[in-house]
Write a structure and sequence with these properties.
single chain; 185 residues; alpha+beta; Topoisomerase I, Chain A, domain 4; Gyrase A, domain 2; 4-stranded antiparallel sheet; two-stranded antiparallel sheet; 4 helices; 57% helix; elongated
Length: 185
């Protein structure tokens, strides 16, 4: 495997890890309502589990309300059940085929819990990045042992992989900072 292929593989896989982190961060509740909080909840729709966003329109009513307009009135009960049994701890109110979720203001204690959770999730992603780096470095070593790379290429590639790792860790840090700032608002 060429040096460029190994570097590209690392960049692609680390990019996927950062994107997954961003998506997960969107699902963490803050003081501002966000549709990402509920749109991926799995709802039992006649025996199939579908994301909420496939069953209706999810929107925001300022200052702290999420409203969901379900297209099939028969599934309103399943949507409410999915919301109330989720780990979000939310209560839903229904008006016909419209479901409203009021988000109360976060307490100081809950904000601190959320910040700790954000840091824990980010640390899990950093661990994945380190494992990925180690895996790619092993492939580099194997390519060197198989005489596909010379010693200069090996060290240069390992240096590039470390630079990319540092860049990804900075990206993760930016995501954490943005989310903790959002929690504090």
């Amino acid at each position: 495997m060429s040096a460029q292929n190994l570097l590209e593989e690392f960049k692609n896989q680390s990019g996927h890890i950062v994107e997954a982190l961003k998506k997960e961060m969107n699902g963490i509740r803050t003081n501002r309502p966000a549709t990402a909080l509920v749109e991926d909840l799995k709802v039992d729709y006649y025996g199939q589990f579908l994301p909420l966003k496939q069953l209706g329109t999810v929107g925001i009513t300022p200052p702290r309300e999420i409203h969901i307009q379900v297209w099939d009135k028969g599934v309103v009960g399943s949507v409410v059940k999915a919301i109330e049994t989720s780990s979000l701890g939310l209560t839903a109110n229904t008006e016909g085929n419209v479901i409203r979720i009021y988000l109360p203001e976060l307490s100081l204690e809950r904000r601190e819990e959320l910040k700790k959770h954000v840091k824990r999730v980010a640390e899990d992603r950093r661990i994945k990045i380190r494992h990925l780096r180690d895996e790619i470095n092993k492939k580099v070593q194997k390519a060197f042992d198989d005489s596909e790379l010379n010693e200069d290429q090996k060290f240069k590639l390992k240096e590039e992989i470390q630079k990319q790792t540092d860049k990804v860790n900075q990206d993760i840090e930016k995501v954490i900072e943005a989310k903790t700032k959002e929690i504090d608002l």
